[in-house]
Amino acid sequence: MRDVVEQLQRLGMSGYEAKAYVTLVGAGKPLNGYEVAKRSGVPRSTVYETLGKLVAKGAAYELRGSDDAIDYLPLPPRSLLERLRREFDDSIESLESSLPTIMAPPEAHLTHNLKDARALLTRAEDVVAGSHTDLFLSIWPQEMERLSSLTKLAVERGVDTSVMHFGPAPDPVGHLYEHRFPPPAVALEHLGYRLLVIVGDRRETLIGGFVDDSAWGVYTEDPAVVLMAAEYIRNDITMEIIADRIGHDSLREIWAGDPELKRLRAGHGRPAALLRAVGGPDLNQPLTY
């Protein structure tokens, strides 16, 4: 019951209104104000005012007896939910046209830090859910578990979705490529974090990292950063496609023997040290999903 009350509050009812409505629904018969107060915990001093507000909203109905006594019946839950859904959709449609008209031009491209896993993953959900044309993800299984359903919805609405997945994916979605070169364990050792990179519609990107029980991240709409993030994922995918075409053994031989590639790999492990030194995660911050 507590969960239902909280959800109704999120949809616009006050706490007393939600408690009174749930009580009416659970009674299965008309109740008077005294009975609602007794069963719901709404104070008797405010129960009739609360019931009056439910009636005004159309969430309850008055039943008047021959002696002018008033009982109350709830609007059936299915009808209430349909009504709330219509009202919510109408408000969203109205705001879609009205909010942009009052928005001031930004003085700079939006950028903000994300300092724990909850904020990081919630913002990641925003980027995935807000994509309309294309979506790029470089992601590990732990984070994909949280974002998989929204990514599937993006694919269903026609978003061209490319996923670089570190390790096998039990439920592939979109154009998914398994990161095998180098193996995920080697990539993790090199960087020190499970790196999460998401790019939506080539206009916004989220970059973050997870390690042990900590997380850090940044969201930005800066076009240069968005471009680099998209190219990072595209190049990773390109490497995997090439490895599949020429054979992973052949690519490993080139990777191990080419002097220029050795030079570029000379900083092995240094990225992890740099990230820790310049604002990586607060190691005392718990990682919560």
From TrEMBL:
| Coiled-coil boundaries | none
- Please name the CDD domains in this protein's record: PLDc_like_TrmB_middle (cd09124)
- Annotated Transcription regulator TrmB N-terminal domain residues: 8-66
Q: Which Pfam families match?
A: TrmB (PF01978)
User: Entry's SUPFAM superfamilies?
Assistant: Winged helix' DNA-binding domain (SSF46785)
* Gene3D superfamilies with a match to the protein in the record: Winged helix-like DNA-binding domain superfamily/Winged helix DNA-binding domain
Q: Which domain of life is it from?
A: Bacteria
Spell out the protein name for this chain: Sugar-specific transcriptional regulator TrmB
Question: Native species of this protein?
Answer: Streptosporangium subroseum
